[in-house]
Design a protein that fits this description.
Radius of gyration: 20 Å
Oligomer: single chain
Number of domains: 2
CATH superfamily of the largest domain: Metal-dependent hydrolases
Number of strands: 20
CATH class of the largest domain: Alpha Beta
Helix content: 25-40%
Distance between the termini: 26 Å
Length: 376
């Protein structure tokens, strides 16, 4: 190959399955060529050649490396570099329910990073506006600044930094009526932090909502005579997030969701405590505490996680028993599909060269983001 192209060799997970061969990209960071011989997943995992998978896509990132997205300033730079170290090649910077001024600060700081990716950092695809349009009765770890959705506020924030995903509770007065307009304007809408009924969830899906935020957590549960938001998701959702840290959701519930929701995808819901020692950190206006692998408010409420996407992949394969190809789609392709990004989350000609390299034990060996190697 000429000096303007780069090549990796190994067992490559393509959209058609594993091949043993090579993948090449050019100076623009786009994949130009993939070739090799087909092999089964068992053969790919038994072989000593490195495993080449699509870079991880995380649609729900609050923080990491001791920093929180809501801080503004250079917090997002530290966060995106920490997650790149764990194989996340693109992500949505996720905000908290907060007063308008706090959101303005966060969005203003994110704007330049959305336009240009810093070296050795994950690509910020845009913002996941997790609230403030949620239920006061299902705040979870969200601060108490919930309010009805406002097209004016969303448009003003979107002008600062691009919003790709909006979480809302459809039962909050006025929210249901705005879903269609939000979708028409190009936003993806997820249902979450909601006490809504099954019927309200189904109606929201029919209006254009396509997913659910951290399924099972902070939403009305499934009961056999009152299916709730969880029931609406399991029965009808094309997509939903799930946090596979084995703390937020029992493995049995994850298996149920895997059977029910074709586009179930993994998120970290990571906080400032990710990659840090036990201690006190911030999550929006809340103080949170990392201890024994979890993050909680002072009252014990789970408050995001310390999960990274490489660990999410290992949990799916080693703890839950998923085939590696399926697990890889759950941490990359399905999220990209939900966000309408055909050139992310897959290894295919024309897609970005977002590639993670793992050994046979699924330990991360190298990361390439848009063709550039991340220093590790």
């Amino acid at each position: 190959m000429n000096r303007l192209t780069s090549t990796l060799r190994g067992n490559i997970l393509t959209e058609a399955g594993f091949i043993q061969g090579e993948i090449t990209w050019d100076a623009s960071g786009r994949i130009q060529h993939i070739q090799g011989r087909a092999l089964s997943e068992a053969e790919a995992r038994a072989d000593r050649a490195p495993l080449l998978l699509p870079g991880f896509v995380d649609a729900h990132v609050h923080g990491g490396a001791g920093h929180d997205i809501m801080e503004g300033g250079d917090a997002a730079l530290h966060i995106t570099r920490l997650h790149a170290q764990h194989g996340t090649t693109s992500l949505l910077a996720t905000t908290m329910t907060a007063p308008q001024g706090d959101l303005d600060t966060a969005f203003a700081a994110l704007a330049p990073l959305c336009r240009q990716r810093p070296e050795h950092a994950a690509r910020i695809l845009g913002v996941h506006l997790e609230g403030p349009y949620i239920s006061e009765s299902r705040l979870g770890a969200q601060p108490p600044f919930a309010r009805p959705a406002s097209l004016e506020e969303i448009a003003r924030l979107h002008a600062l930094a691009p919003i790709r995903l909006i979480t809302l509770a459809p039962e909050v007065a006025g929210n249901q009526a705005l879903i269609g307009e939000l979708c028409a304007r190009g936003f993806r809408v997820q249902l979450g932090h909601s006490s809504g009924s099954y019927e309200e969830g189904l109606a929201a899906l029919r209006c254009g909502a396509t997913g659910f935020t951290h399924l099972f957590n902070a939403m009305s549960p499934l009961q056999h005579r009152a299916p709730g938001m969880v029931g609406a998701a399991l029965a009808h959702a094309p997509y939903a997030e799930i946090i596979p840290d084995l703390l937020h959701v029992h493995p049995g519930a994850i298996h149920a969701a895997l059977r029910a929701i074709p586009g179930l995808y993994c998120v970290t819901d990571s906080t400032a405590a990710t990659g840090m020692p036990d201690g006190e950190y911030t999550l929006g206006r809340h103080a949170v505490f990392k201890c024994q692998g979890g993050v909680r408010l002072a009252d014990g409420t789970l408050a995001g996680s310390t999960l990274t996407m490489d660990q999410a992949l290992r949990n799916l394969v080693l703890a839950l028993g998923l085939p590696l190809a399926d697990a890889a789609r759950r941490v990359s392709t399905h999220a990209a599909n939900h966000l309408g990004l055909p050139d992310r989350g897959r290894l295919a000609v024309g897609a970005w060269a977002d590639i993670v390299v793992l050994d046979a034990g699924l330990q991360l060996q190298a990361v390439h983001i848009e063709g550039q190697a991340v220093a590790r």
